[in-house]
Design brief:
Blueprint: H1 3-7, H2 11-24, H3 31-42, H4 45-67, H5 71-77, H6 83-98, H7 105-120, E1 123-124, E2 131-134, E3 140-143, E4 148-153, E5 158-170, E6 179-183, E7 186-190, E8 194-200, E9 203-210, E10 212-217, E11 222-226, E12 229-233, E13 242-243, E14 255-262, H8 263-270, E15 277-280, E16 288-294, H9 298-308, E17 311-317, E18 320-325
Parallel strand pairs: 5-6, 15-18
Antiparallel strand pairs: 1-4, 2-3, 3-5, 4-5, 5-8, 6-7, 7-10, 8-9, 9-12, 10-11, 12-13, 14-16, 17-18
Helix pairs in contact: 2-4, 5-6, 6-7
């Protein structure tokens, strides 16, 4: 279930759907309540989309915890990326798809390619998982949660194909084979450097911490990004770089460092580390957040937010949590 699917539906509709899910799974539910639910469902296509989203999240958890307790975690965390394991990964993914576990139909088109990318990539991570790897040339990379990268190293090139998520790269020197990272929006060539690349939706975010990186968009625009700078670009637009911050790579140490970060953005980042749904009410999404939050303990991170901001954490189900205004 992708965050993009949830973002396409209003927070209010998602919360209403979650409440209906709780009621309909109560053994005491009566026929009148079911009729009220059906009436709510018929009010709009968004209600139907919200219901299908909640239903699929619930089904996914039930399936993975009861019927297939090791299927997803085993494949995503398998460090032996052999051809056999990849075939097993795709087979397992198709089982989940046939069971309707990837989400409501409007999101399948975007969710399926990303899921396949993570399940078939040379290196991949799941929800709440980060990974470090040393490449054959001595370079080191770190994958953020929900990320996938393919490695194409040979006598003439060093190429990382970022399929999804984010990768942090500490480049080993090799003047004859400059290390490049490719995303859907373009290519980045390391000029002896440490940098991170993140691909989200239709944009690539580059942060340079040491050295410099040359960026070439799909449409041929070229720009050099120096240390302490970042660049958010699309396939046909490369604006002027802005100032980067070293806190952007704190996820490697299991931390999310916020410096006037909007609460909605922080919650979206935390959702990459927490199974199920983690949402934010638009009424509090723009609240500025300062501080350090543990990514490996999202419950603690949410408690810290409650203590620091006029918000409350609403836990409708074990796998459905929202942050809204304090009552």
């Amino acid at each position: 279930m992708t965050q993009a699917c949830a973002n396409a539906i209003s927070h209010a509709s998602l919360e209403q759907a979650a409440q209906w899910y709780v009621q309909l799974n109560d053994l005491q539910v009566d026929e009148q309540q079911r009729r009220h639910w059906q009436a709510w469902l018929a009010q709009s296509g968004e209600h139907q989309a919200a219901w299908h989203y909640v239903e699929r999240v619930g089904q996914r958890f039930a399936a993975l915890q009861q019927e297939h307790p090791h299927a997803a975690s085993h494949v995503l965390r398998n460090t032996e990326r052999t051809a056999i394991s990849r075939r097993q990964a795709v087979k397992s993914l198709l089982v989940l798809v046939s069971g309707g576990l990837l989400g409501w139909s409007a999101c399948k088109q975007s969710a399926l390619p990303l899921a396949l990318a993570r399940w078939t990539a040379d290196l991949a991570t799941g929800t709440g998982e980060t990974r470090e790897a040393r490449l054959s040339d001595g370079s080191r990379i770190w994958l953020n949660a929900l990320s996938a990268v393919n490695v194409r190293f040979d006598a003439s090139q060093r190429l990382l194909l970022l399929q999804a998520g984010e990768v942090l790269v500490d480049t080993a020197k090799d003047p004859d084979r400059p290390l490049r990272v490719q995303t859907a929006q373009g290519w980045m060539r390391a000029l002896g450097t440490r940098f991170s690349v993140r691909q989200d939706n239709l944009q690539t975010l580059l942060n340079v911490y040491e050295g410099a990186v040359e960026v070439r968009t799909r449409e041929g625009q070229v720009r050099v990004v120096e240390a302490a700078s970042q660049l958010l670009f699309s396939d046909n637009h490369s604006p002027v770089p802005t100032t980067a911050t070293a806190t952007r790579e704190a996820w490697r140490r299991g931390l999310l460092l916020a410096d006037n970060m909007p609460l909605g953005q922080l919650i979206e980042e935390l959702s990459r580390y927490r199974p199920g749904h983690l949402g934010c009410d638009p009424a509090v999404a723009s609240l500025p957040v300062m501080g350090s939050f543990p990514l490996r303990d999202t419950d603690q991170a949410l408690r810290l937010l409650e203590a620091a901001l006029p918000v409350r954490v609403i836990k409708t189900l074990d796998w459905w949590v929202s942050v809204g205004p304090k009552a």
